[in-house]
Design brief:
Helix content: 25-40%
Protein name: Lycopene beta-cyclase
Structural class: alpha/beta
CATH topology of the largest domain: FAD/NAD(P)-binding domain
CATH superfamily of the largest domain: FAD/NAD(P)-binding domain
Shape: globular
Distance between the termini: 55 Å
Number of strands: 17
CATH architecture of the largest domain: 3-Layer(bba) Sandwich
Largest sheet: 7 strands, mixed
Strand content: 25-35%
Organism: Polynucleobacter meluiroseus
């Protein structure tokens, strides 16, 4: 295997493969790039969702979309028409296959599977030296998508933890026209819990139970509530589980990650869910990653080095931070706050805001929909 590269991408997940796709489109001007993915093969292990606004990328890969979605808590329910920006879902396998196909067409990119690092990268004589099972490689630039350790993430404001089943039943019990974005459980002082349902047909759906809490919740803790969710939507019904989906997303990192490697050399950048790729207050990441990929590709073309994701605008990051502070201090307020947002803010405004495309008037509408007292207290904590 070639030993010297312009760029090494550590991790072939969403961020790594997305960058690889964009670089592959540069043809013969693409940097000589090595992608290292520790998995032996790709599986249909997750989904990515977003609203299909005009600026959304890769909407052609969406396997399902919904023109309406529902949010409900206790006796309240809000049905939102989002036909102007359908709620879309990309199945991981569709994305993995598409990305690998694009990357394989450019000989200047090399995707290696089952490629775990044998040691941490070392900066020696102006280049990064990386030990792999294929031998030592070096690169001028490195994009590291590996998640940070739990110790490094100890000051995260909240964690989003979720466990779900993609399942199939014989009876036609699901409404494939309406996604259930948030169906809140009984409020409590430990966490905000809600069910999430994406119906693919009348007989097949993804049902998840999600928690926002100060600490991560693991599969065994989430399983009881997921079982309740399944029973709620398909009571006393046999079902077949096609796959299981579990995830942990940090919400409100202490700061945009400035890891030790980046402090040594600006050509080493960290990206991914633990490095600011996910929106703090929502956990949505796919479109944010695509926007970073475009910026990073332009930077590589201009000066040969990758760049980290940019900081969120001050107003957006401040609003997200205050919102997370309120949820952390008073999780029992969660259902009411989210119901206020989805029932009181005009859908165009709210979806733009949730998709990082908000105008100033959208920010005002969001602020006006929320009760002032807990947020004023959160500002001064």
């Amino acid at each position: 295997m070639q030993a010297d590269f312009d760029l090494v991408i550590i991790g072939g997940g969403c961020a790594g493969l997305s960058l690889g796709m964009y670089l592959a489109q540069l043809g013969h001007t693409a940097p000589q790039t090595l992608l290292l993915e520790r998995r032996k093969y790709y599986e249909n292990d997750r989904t990515w969702c977003f609203w299909g606004l005009d600026q959304a990328l890769h909407t052609d890969l969406a396997s399902n979309q919904w023109n309406q979605f529902k949010v409900q808590a206790n006796e309240q329910s809000a049905l939102i028409d989002c036909a102007f920006a359908p709620y879309q879902m990309i199945a991981a396998q569709n994305f993995y296959d598409h990305a690998q196909g694009k990357i394989s067409k450019n000989s200047r990119l090399d995707l290696r599977m089952n490629a775990a690092l044998l040691a941490e990268p070392q900066f020696i004589e102006g280049r990064w030296r990386i030990q792999t099972q294929f031998g030592e490689v070096s690169a001028k630039g490195v994009v590291d998508t590996r998640p940070l350790s739990m110790t490094q993430l100890k000051n995260t404001k909240l964690w989003q933890s979720f466990l779900g089943y993609e399942l199939e039943i014989q009876e036609e019990l699901f409404d494939p026209e309406v996604a259930v974005l948030m169906d809140f459980c009984e409020k409590n002082a430990e966490y905000i819990g809600f069910n999430y349902l994406l119906p693919f047909s009348k007989t097949r759906a993804l049902i998840e139970f999600t928690v926002f809490a100060e600490r991560p919740f693991y599969e065994d803790e989430l399983l009881i509530e997921l079982t309740k969710a399944v029973e709620k939507y398909i009571p006393h019904t046999d079902f077949k589980i096609h796959r299981t989906e579990f995830g942990l997303i940090p919400m409100g990192l202490e700061s945009q990650v400035s890891a030790k490697h980046g402090a040594i050399d600006k050509g080493y950048v960290h990206v991914g869910l633990t490095a600011g790729s996910a929106r703090s207050a929502t956990g949505y990441a796919f479109q944010r990653i695509q926007r970073w990929v475009q910026e990073c590709t332009e930077a590589i073309q201009a000066n040969g080095l990758p760049i980290a994701p940019s900081f969120d605008p001050f107003l957006l990051s401040t609003m997200d931070s205050i919102f997370l502070n309120v949820l952390r201090e008073h999780p029992e307020f969660g259902p009411e706050l989210f119901m206020n947002l989805f029932s009181k803010v005009e859908p165009h405004r709210l979806i733009r805001f949730l998709s990082d495309q908000g105008h100033l008037t959208d920010y005002v509408a969001v602020i006006s929909a929320l009760p002032s007292t807990p947020f004023i207290k959160a500002i001064f904590k």
